[in-house]
Specification:
With 266 residues, the chain is an alpha/beta fold. It has 10 helices and 10 strands. It starts with a strand and ends in an 18-residue tail after the last helix. It binds adenosine-5'-triphosphate.
Length: 266
């Protein structure tokens, strides 16, 4: 049981977006991917979710090779993701955005909904109760009727995470979910991510905030121009002079606030 990415390479014309990258995400573990802009983090996500075809290597979920599984069917294999730049209808309210996350698991079907079968009403009550719990957990209850277009992008990302977990995924891929959040909101998101992982979900997280990476990760993968630069527990990485020099600058004290030296915003 795991996501196993083995030796994948992806090329866009002359750009090697990923070169021979392997990553494993086990249930209940939080794996983070860090690296400067353009290092291949989103391409890794897109390779796992099927938005990008890999040129070499394999992506497996629970031992099953996904090569012939289209992106839309990967939801059924237990995958959910958020996007770095969410695409959304600004008129949709927070509550409806989260409720949308339940419908991939709906068993009622369009006909059942049109006929208002009792099973549909029961299911909608269950979705609504579960949605209330999620909104509460994410501190979004007071904003349930706010339209997404009124919210800052950071909050929209938080709504995306809330929607992604509605489907009860076994693996959750989060692409920079904390960007634009206040410190308090980041802390709330971190504790939610911990709680989600503790419930047995494998989490793959792209995040630039190294303090958050450090506090959450069981394992961190460092990409640089599509290649693996380093990997390990964040505390191990902190003892790796090459990593510290490349990503955090030479001043090791107070690393959570240290500025990266090669153009990343870690
Ligand atoms: N669809 C595409 N077509 C052409 N080139 C692409 C495409 N997607 C990504 N690339 C290129 O592949 C490389 C890796 O991009 P990717 O978006 O995966 O990096 P990233 O680490 O997620 O960057 P960022 O932190 O800016 O989101 C970059 O050079 C990018 O320009």
């Amino acid at each position: 049981m795991s996501i196993e990415v083995e030796n994948i390479s992806v090329q866009f014309g002359g750009v090697h977006a990923l070169k021979d990258i392997s990553v494993r995400v086990d249930p209940g573990r939080i794996v983070t991917v860090i690296g400067p802009n353009g290092s291949g983090k989103s391409t890794l996500f897109n390779s796992i979710t099927g938005l990008v075809a890999v040129d070499q290597g394999t992506v497996c979920i629970d031992g099953q090779n996904l090569a012939r599984v289209p992106a839309w069917q990967r939801i059924g294999r237990g995958l959910a993701r958020t996007f770095q730049t969410p695409r959304f209808d600004p008129r949709v309210c927070v509550e409806d955005a989260v409720l949308c996350g339940f419908y991939p698991v709906s068993r009622a079907g369009i006909l059942g909904a049109m006929l208002r079968l009792p099973v549909v009403a029961r299911q909608e009550r269950a979705f609504s109760a579960a949605c209330d719990r999620i909104l509460d957990d994410f501190g979004l209850d007071g904003l349930r009727h706010a339209s997404l277009g009124e919210l800052p992008m950071g909050m929209v990302r938080l709504v995306e995470v809330a929607r992604a977990i509605a489907n009860k995924p076994r693996y959750l891929l989060l692409d920079e979910p904390a960007a634009g959040l206040t410190r308090a909101e980041q802390q709330l998101l971190s504790s939610e991510i911990r709680r989600i992982a503790a419930s047995g979900v494998g989490v793959l997280l792209v995040e630039h905030n190294f303090a958050m990476v450090r506090s959450l990760s069981d394992h961190t993968v460092v990409l640089d121009r599509g290649a693996l630069l380093a990997q390990g527990h964040p505390e191990e990485l902190m003892r790796d002079p090459a990593f510290v020099a490349a990503y955090l600058g030479s001043s090791t004290p107070g690393l959570s606030g240290a500025q990266p030296s090669i153009g990343t915003t870690l």
